[in-house]
Amino acid sequence: MADISTGPAPCHTERVIGGTTVVEMRGEIDMLTATPLSARLDTLTAGPRPHLVLDLRPVTFIDGSGLRLLCRARNRVLARQGRLRLVVDSGRLLRILRVALLADVFEILPDLHTDHCDAPEEGTVSAATG
């Protein structure tokens, strides 16, 4: 009998640097991987003042499900007075965010430095609130 697979589990790693959780996502973020990734991001954004950096540099593909996942994470973080930043160095992914009218919604970093991972001081909010 043939083994039918629904696709690989989402590939991501997590680490905490200076009070910020850095989630490196790899591969495809699509309708097969978005649901389990979204559940994990929901857990990471459940507490007060969550600070997340989503490193999307290793992402090879993202569809509407992946964009929805990013928006959901952003909304949850902002509702809890936290901060969400995306690390994007791909012109292709930046174009997708622009076409979806999301490039100005997210705080986008071109690379990941540990100084990007310091949690903002009390009362500080992300510049990209809108």
UniProtKB/TrEMBL annotation:
Q: Which domain of life is it from?
A: Bacteria
Question: Which SUPFAM superfamilies does this UniProt record tie to the protein?
Answer: SpoIIaa-like
InterPro entries in alphabetical order = Anti-sigma_ant (IPR003658), STAS_dom (IPR002645), STAS_dom_sf (IPR036513)
Where do the STAS domain residues begin and end? 19-98
Q: State the NCBIfam families in the record.
A: ant_ant_sig
The Swiss-Prot or TrEMBL record describes its family as follows: Belongs to the anti-sigma-factor antagonist family.
* Protein name, entry field: Anti-sigma factor antagonist
Q: Which organism does this sequence originate in?
A: Streptomyces longisporus
